[in-house]
């Protein structure tokens, strides 16, 4: 158990938390949410002891082991993948090293023999004999090839490094698990495995994530950082979001009686209580939900941007025909023999293990990169707009404010018109007069969405649409793409966005591509297809 008692964190120019009081109990998974800059990651650092609070205390139950997901991929370059996983259990790894040091000696003194006996006893007590199999089970579950297990981390691809660091955090059944954005750069199969692992986990899990699908599947509670407070609510992310919006709506309606409001809230709670993440906790959570009073749920101060796309010209039947594309980067082949078609109404989820390959394909379709082989044929009615994963070139070194920047992409130059689009993305008052070179990552993304809306294109090429965005903006993006009347092709790690928006899947592999008519979940669940697609991938070198 972790007890947070009267904790405040105040910097010279900003107050993050004040008088926070929370308890984190075993058997529960807590999702930490809040606007960008609210202090979610900082809150995890307080819990881990990496940062000290300005006042108050954080008490971890005695003899409980805490594990943290490392964010530094290069910190373990001198160790093998298995050694890196073992290091997740510091005491066990130290015993393993001490044993190995003694066993390497040609002769062992009586004193060293006594020490070795003591080490072996501690090793057995910590389930050390199962360490290899436990570590391998974690790595296999996360789809790390067995050929990587004994390689030095410096020789392992980044896409496998993140999985190894996650296995490190999970190793040895820690009593408290702190995970900051654990699904970043994971493939959907690995995320599914992690969800199942955490749903069955009997200890305490506290995670920060922008992945709504992940939060909904694993969380029993949400911790909302808002109003310089951190408040805990029973339920997953969707329950918190919808109940918060409902309460805001009901509180705004002065004519409704409180009894009617409570009845509506109880009906909402009853609907959600039938859909719980952990079946073993269904009864206790249902009772907790039933006890919730209207006043206990505080509407969020966070605002939702508006993203909606109008189309200037209707799309014809034929959208895109791609035949036998191939491309290389720095002499390395990203993909070859990629072929597919898109028709009116297609909203395509672009999948693949290699993010660079997906980005290269979208750049080729946008006309920003030439393929080595193959042809691209766009339909006669197509007007396309490209949303890149890296937008720095649009902003760096530009000495212009937001209005001047967005005016470059608008047929209508009037300031009131430009301000209207910026206002949709929550730039109001004097904010549009800010110079674009000083924008944060999230602000740049919101500007790019204003630009995308202005294009009125009937076909969108979208690369990484949710990076740097808070959950409210991600929800707005999701709704905008769902309601869009044109066709689109989108590369994203956001499961919920792809599942709710897309009706077609195209997977780009090393040696070709595969097209599936259906949703992301249907594609992931179709084991026969996934086995077939696996032959299009080369073994990692």
Helix segment count?
19
Q: Major beta sheet, specifics?
A: 6 strands, mixed
Round the Cα radius of gyration to an integer and report it: 26 Å
Query: What is the overall shape?
Result: globular
CATH fold-level assignment of the largest domain? Rossmann fold
Low-confidence stretches: 278-283
The CATH homologous superfamily of the largest domain is termed P-loop containing nucleotide triphosphate hydrolases
Main sheet strand line-up: 5-6-7-3-8-9
Give the structural class.
Answer: alpha/beta
Quick gist of this model?
The protein is an alpha/beta fold. It has helices at residues 40-48, 81-86, 90-103, 110-125, 131-141, 158-170, 188-199, 212-218, 237-252, 258-273, 282-290, 355-366, 402-407, 415-424, 441-455, 471-483, 495-501, 520-525, 527-534, and strands at 2-10, 15-24, 29-34, 55-60, 66-68, 176-180, 204-208, 221-226, 229-234, 318-329, 332-343, 347-351, 373-378, 384-387, 459-463, 487-491, 504-509, 512-517.
Description:
By secondary structure, the chain is of the alpha/beta class. The protein has three domains: 2-64 and 212-296, P-loop containing nucleotide triphosphate hydrolases (Rossmann fold, 3-Layer(aba) Sandwich); 77-173, no CATH class; 318-534, P-loop containing nucleotide triphosphate hydrolases (Rossmann fold, 3-Layer(aba) Sandwich), CATH 3.40.50. Helices cover 38% and strands 22% of the residues. The chain contains 19 helices and 18 strands. The longest helix has 16 residues, at 110-125. The two termini are 44 Å apart.
